[in-house]
Specification:
The structure holds two protein chains of two kinds.
Chain A lengths: L6 H10 L3 H20 L3 H17 L7 H9 L3 H14 L10 H9 L4 H14 L2 H15 L4 H17 L20 H17 L1 H9 L3 H14 L7 E2 L2 E2 L1 H15 L3 H17 L5 H16 L4 H15 L4 H14 L4 H5 L2 H6 L6 H14 L5 H14 L2 H18 L3 H15 L7 H11 L4 H14 L4 H19 L13 H13 L5 H14 L6 H10 L6 H15 L5 H4 L14 H5 L18 H14 L40 H4 L29 E6 L2 E9 L6 E10 L5 E9 L5 E4 L14 E9 L8 E9 L2 E9 L4 H4 L1
Antiparallel strand pairs in A: 1-2, 3-4, 4-5, 5-8, 6-9, 7-8, 9-10
Helix pairs in contact in A: 1-2, 2-3, 3-5, 4-5, 5-7, 6-7, 6-8, 7-9, 8-9, 9-10, 10-11, 10-13, 12-13, 12-14, 13-15, 14-15, 14-16, 15-16, 15-17, 16-17, 17-20, 21-22, 21-23, 22-23, 23-25, 24-26, 25-26, 26-27, 26-28, 27-28, 28-29, 28-30, 29-30
Chain B lengths: L1 H9 L2 H16 L8 E3 L10 E7 L2 E7 L5 H19 L4 H6 L1 H11 E2 L2 E2 L4 H18 L5 H10 L9 E4 L2 E4 L7
Antiparallel strand pairs in B: 1-2, 2-3, 4-5, 6-7
The chains are: A alpha+beta, B alpha+beta.
Chain lengths: 822, 180
């Protein structure tokens, strides 16, 4: 048989193949030739054949039939055979093939071979692919070689030992004695691999770690070696760009990190050397930076003193300014890890980090974005948000969803004002609207509902945005919801924050109908717009048009739309009397307790937790108002006294929720009384639009102002209001009678009568003497049951004796604030 | 690096090729002025593994590492490896690597073992590799050709070789070939 072709020939031939099929043909032909050659058991050419087989394997063709041949080569006496045989074993064999166990004996013999290179080959193979059985069998041999004086073998034995330990952790103890004087070697290769071995042992076993710390005094040894490396002059062997064996330095730093973690003594011992490395290393090339980086990681991980930590973070900050992208990348990664623990130090580099948002590299941008969100706080929210919104505008789509969510979260936590919050949300919706997550729509709606004074502004802006673009579904959904709720504000041009636009009811309905028919709208969006149109039937006057639209959709193909339309139709026809009540303004929604008063107080840069303990969670509404109050007063000096009676604005006929602006009575007076009962008097609110009761958030009860019911002849009677819990139909009125004349009023009796639809209960008065000159008041509690929520009217009769003469008076009280009876 | 090598080897062969293809695809797309670190593709074990690469002329050297390696250090390691190749092959070029893939493996074996860095001193590495190459050569090398030629000649039946050839005044002394 002709001699098998040489490797070189084969490679050349294969490279001439022009198609995949041609190449496959050549390979198959050669494989066949090799197989017959193997069958002939020709020792001379076996190595050549296996070499060719390995080449073909590299190209991706199956080569398993060569496995046994590799074993035969390993068993041969020639170095060449062994070399290619071991290589073949490493590439073709692994634990899954039973064949590999046959190698064990060969390796054992070779580990004791007279030629060090053969021993080296054996160690290499064992260290790369030795299975646990092999490792168990041969661990003893490896351990012997670990103690040899031959540095070539010692370093290989060290790494082989690491592999053994990884495969069979119980054998770790066995290598302990051999490690005793590993570090006193001069040869850098041995030093390097020894440090790797020690690192592995320390990482795997806390006992080992403790042992090395105490008994072996590892830290001082490592510090000494490191010092020598730095101090020693130029050594051409180990020099890489002017630094002496950076690989070893990095390794040692890493081991120091493990030793110093959570251990004060060790950390102390390495403080100086770390400071030295940090300040003396050249940073012009990658090498120096690699060492510095490792030093920084070590400093941050051990119990270093604060000065050192600040130094470390500053180094990272310098890295951020480096031209080399790789350095910036690793710096951002490390800062991300440390931002939780050393927040303030990282804050100093905020502007550099924000600049990295504009980098061209995707990996850097992503890290900069994550880090920026971690750094946002109450103080820098405005500036940071500007940058982040700009980033949102211009970044790749893969970032937009995460960035949008991050913006919402940050805005929710740190928004300095409601208007700013809404503006920010608008910005996100208009620029990245299609990437916003699905759950943000309900969150946004809740937020908008709760920002009562911004309704007109919000709906106006959303309307304008809709006119521009109806393709971004989240934006469209939020906008149509708002128009449905606050459409009346829109057409009445009530906006205070900006120039009100002139828009007619028909124009608004045009827009909403446009959404219904547009191809861009998803079914969910259509549902929103249909409901919005329906709600406008109580707010607009052009009801007929709305009726028409609704009836058309009663035969829509979309089942959801059809159902809604049919129900709304029914509302128009059979239940018209309920329509206004059902389609009333939404009440303010309860948010989860976690966003309590504390959060909001922080927006002023204060950290006053003082407000929180007094108020149980349900009182978020007052808290929101407090936020507005603080905003209006613009100051940090207003102590958030949320106990004050909430100031109110008279409600409009639509029965809408109260806007809470206006006067703020910070003085004492009747104020304290209502407050404590406020939290208790709120029933859980009902968003269910089908209940027959008009929905009205009784938090407003907290806002019922006191009134003067009677003021004549020096006798003044004030009424203050509360709501009884649990029955919301009972108004609890406390009368306060005061006397400005010079003489006391004695035998004071207060009587009251109410219309038939009400029920009245008078409790006993505090006393029947009203002291002169406003020195005191008489109080009495009246409970009024008002199941039909009719306007409260009362006739009162007062009898008392003043200066000996009896006085009697009748009066009608009609000026009850609407909140008291609604 | 070790864990990844194992991981790759434990896949079926066609998976190996796919991993290689995906890696190449990811790396070749990269612009020259972005950083040299890439999160690994979906086939390579998840986010703990990173690809660190360097671009030399037409070649990419890609190292797949886990979090226990220093990224910047690996960049230097790649440089050391390439410089060693250069020394061993004398101005290495792409063809050298193709035609001597076994030698490349042997050099790599002196630098990295079991997925961990073994030796970074270039002189040390080149010395060891040289010695081993010479050992191979003395045995006849992979091709084993000289040995065959020698044995072939040995088996030839040569007639008696005259010791002296006299042609006129020229006297040629035939050197004696030592029997082998």
């Amino acid at each position: 048989m002709p001699a098998p072709i040489r490797l070189r020939e084969l490679i050349r031939t294969i490279r001439t193949a022009r198609t995949q099929a041609e190449e496959r043909e050549m390979i198959q032909k050669e494989c066949a030739a090799i197989r017959s050659s193997f069958r002939e058991e020709d020792n001379t050419y076996r190595c050549r054949n296996v070499a060719k087989l390995l080449y073909m394997h590299m190209l991706g063709y199956p080569a398993h039939f060569g496995q046994l041949e590799c074993l035969k080569l390993i068993a041969s006496q020639k170095f060449t055979d062994k070399r290619i045989g071991y290589l073949g074993a490493m590439l073709l064999l692994d634990e899954r093939q039973d064949v590999h166990l046959l190698m064990t004996n060969c390796i054992k013999n070779d580990l004791n071979h007279s030629t060090q290179y053969v021993q080296g080959l054996a160690l290499c193979t064992l260290g790369c692919m030795g299975s646990s059985e092999m490792c168990r069998d041969l661990a003893g041999e490896v351990e012997k070689l670990l103690k040899t004086s031959n540095s070539y073998l010692r370093k290989k034995a060290a790494l082989c030992a690491v592999h053994v330990i990884r495969k069979v952790p119980e054998l770790m103890e066995m290598f302990l004695p051999a490690t005793k004087n590993l570090l006193s070697e001069k040869n850098h290769g041995v030093l390097h691999t020894s440090v790797v071995l020690l690192t592995e042992m320390c990482e795997r076993s806390p006992d080992m770690l403790a042992h090395f710390r105490k008994n072996e005094k590892l830290v001082p040894q490592l510090v000494r070696i490191l010092k020598n490396l730095i101090m020693s002059g130029y050594s051409p062997e180990h020099d890489v760009s002017g630094i002496s064996d950076p690989f070893l330095q990095v390794r040692i730093l890493r081991l120091l990190r493990i030793l110093g973690r959570s251990d004060d003594d060790s950390s102390e011992a390495m403080n100086d050397i770390l400071a030295q490395v940090a300040t003396n290393t050249e940073t012009s090339k990658n090498v120096g930076n690699a060492i510095l980086y490792e030093t920084v990681l070590t400093i941050m991980d051990i119990k270093s003193e604060s000065g050192l930590r600040v130094l470390a973070i500053n180094i990272l900050g310098r890295f951020l300014l480096n031209n080399d992208k790789n350095i910036r990348y690793v710096a951002l990664t490390s800062l991300l890890k440390t931002v939780q623990t050393d927040h303030n130090a990282v804050q100093r580099h905020r502007s550099t980090i924000v600049d990295c948002l504009k980098d061209l590299d995707v990996s850097i941008k992503r890290r900069a974005m994550e880090l920026s969100f971690a750094l946002v706080n109450g103080n820098n929210i405005r500036g940071m948000m500007k940058e982040l919104l700009y980033f949102l505008d211009s970044c790749d789509p893969e970032f937009k969803a995460d960035c949008a969510s991050g913006v919402f979260l940050a805005a929710e936590k740190y928004a300095p004002s409601k208007r700013w919050h809404i503006d920010t949300i608008m910005r996100v919706l208009t620029t990245a609207g299609s990437y916003v997550r699905d759950d943000s729509v309900p969150n946004l709606i809740q937020l908008i509902t709760n920002s009562v004074e911004m309704h007109a502004y919000t709906v106006q802006r959303l309307y304008k945005a809709l006119l521009d673009d109806i393709s971004q579904q989240p934006l469209v959904q939020v906008a149509s919801w708002c128009i449905g709720e606050y459409g009346d504000l829109l057409v009445s041009g009530q906006c205070e924050e900006e120039e009100p636009i002139q828009v007619t009811e028909d124009e608004v309905l045009d827009v909403l109908e446009g959404l219904l028919v547009s191809n861009l709208s998803t079914p969910v969006t259509r549902g929103y717009s249909l409901t919005a149109i329906m709600k406008l039937s109580t707010r607009f006057t052009s009801v007929n048009r709305i009726k028409k639209v609704v009836s058309i959709y009663g035969s829509s193909i979309d089942v959801e739309l059809q159902q809604r339309a049919v129900e709304y139709n029914a509302l128009f026809k059979k239940y018209d009397h309920m329509r206004p009540a059902l389609l009333e303004r939404m009440p303010i929604m309860e948010k989860s307790a976690s966003n309590g008063p504390t959060e909001i107080v922080q927006t002023n840069g204060e950290t006053e937790p003082s407000v929180e303990p007094k108020h149980p969670p349900p009182v978020t509404q007052p808290a929101n108002q407090a936020n507005d109050l603080l905003d209006l007063l613009g100051g940090n000096d207003v102590v958030p006294v949320i106990q004050t009676t909430m100031p109110t604005k008279p409600a409009s006929a639509g029965g809408e929720l109260l806007d809470l602006l206006g006067d703020l009575s910070l003085s004492g007076g009747p104020a304290p009384a209502p407050a404590p009962s406020v939290p208790t008097s709120q029933p859980p609110f009902l968003l269910d639009g089908l209940s027959s009761q008009p929905l009205f958030n009784d938090i407003a009860a907290a806002a019922i102002p006191p009134m003067t019911a009677y003021n004549k002849n020096g006798l003044k009677i004030d009424f203050t209001f509360e709501r009884a819990n649990p029955n919301p139909n009972i108004a609890v009125i406390t009368i306060h009678a005061s006397n400005s004349t010079e003489a006391d009023m004695t035998d004071f009796v207060f009587q009251a009568a109410v219309p038939k639809t009400f029920q009245l209960q008078l409790l006993s008065p505090s006393s029947n003497v009203v002291p002169a000159l406003n020195q005191g008041t008489v109080t009495q509690v009246i409970r009024v049951l008002n199941p039909q929520k009719q306007q409260l009217r009362m006739r009162i009769k007062l009898t008392y004796t003043l200066k000996g003469s009896p006085v009697q008076d009748l009066a009608e009280v009609n000026n009850f604030p609407p909140q008291s009876w609604q | 690096v070790q864990n990844t090598v194992q991981h790759v080897l434990l896949q079926a062969e066609d998976m190996q090729q796919q991993i290689i293809r995906e890696t190449f695809h990811l790396v070749s797309k990269r612009d020259d002025n972005v950083c040299n670190f890439l999160e690994g593709g979906s086939l390579i074990g998840g986010s703990d593994y990173k690809l660190i690469y360097r671009h030399y002329a037409t070649l990419y050297f890609v190292f797949c590492v886990d979090s226990s390696e220093s990224e910047l250090g690996i960049l230097d390691l790649i440089q050391v490896f390439v410089e060693t190749l250069d020394k061993c092959f004398e101005n290495v070029c792409e063809l050298d690597l193709i035609f001597h893939m076994d030698k490349v493996h042997y050099i790599l074996q002196e630098v990295v073992m079991g997925g961990m860095v073994l030796e970074t001193n270039m002189n040390e590495i080149t010395t060891q590799v040289d010695v081993q190459n010479r050992m191979e050569k003395s045995e006849g090398g992979l091709s084993a050709a000289p040995a065959r030629a020698v044995s072939a000649v040995k088996n030839m039946n040569l007639p008696e070789i005259p010791r002296n050839i006299n042609i006129g005044d020229i006297n040629i002394k035939v050197p004696s070939l030592s029997p082998f």
